[in-house]
Specification:
By secondary structure, the chain is an alpha+beta fold. Helices cover 27% and strands 24% of the residues. The protein has helices at 13-25, 69-72, 80-89, 102-113, 156-159, and strands at 36-37, 40-41, 73-76, 91-96, 117-125, 129-132, 135-138, 142-149. A 4-stranded antiparallel beta sheet has the order 3-4-8-5. Strand 1 and strand 2 (40-41) form a beta hairpin.
């Protein structure tokens, strides 16, 4: 925009002030002004790369990133309650790595057992306080995953 021209309706107060100063200084060409939002220069949001499984800050937080599907599933969790769940609703319960995400659990179960997972629920189970005489201790905390399979799919470990 040339300095001699007046700004139209789309001109903000900051742009108008810049044009007025440019006219006083005798500048013939004025550079466009950055748009200001909430008192700060407005920037476009940067494009982010596709996020890999796991959190990008896991290494900085001192966590071990779970990369291998064999590391994700620790063991099946079989109790009276869980056996009733897989017989009635095809929901299977596993103990999983504490840092495993739901997506990692889904991929690991599908790859290890050749089934299709429809839902994954997780819970961090707190270790119980235990005593042996005067000595008090605590069992380790662990992560539980309840996995629902597509109708017709089964996992042989629980059946036999």
């Amino acid at each position: 925009m040339l300095a001699g021209e007046r700004a139209g309706a789309g001109c903000t107060a900051g742009e108008q002030g810049l044009l007025d100063r440019a006219m006083l200084l005798g500048v013939s060409q004025v550079e466009p002004v950055e748009r200001v939002v909430a008192g700060r220069p407005h920037r476009r949001p940067r494009e982010r790369p596709a996020r890999a499984l796991g959190h990008p800050l896991d290494e900085r937080r001192g966590r071990h990133p779970v990369d291998d599907v064999v590391e994700v599933v620790v063991r099946p969790h079989i109790t009276e309650k869980t056996s009733a769940a897989y017989q009635d609703r095809t929901e299977y319960t596993f103990e999983v790595h504490p840092d495993a995400t739901k997506q990692q659990i889904r991929l690991a179960i599908e790859e290890l057992f050749g089934v299709k997972v429809t839902h994954v629920w997780t819970a961090n189970m707190r270790g119980k306080e235990k005593r042996m005489g005067q000595t008090a201790g605590r069992r380790p905390s662990w992560k539980k995953a309840i996995v629902k399979l597509r109708a017709g799919d089964t996992i042989e470990i629980f059946e036999g």
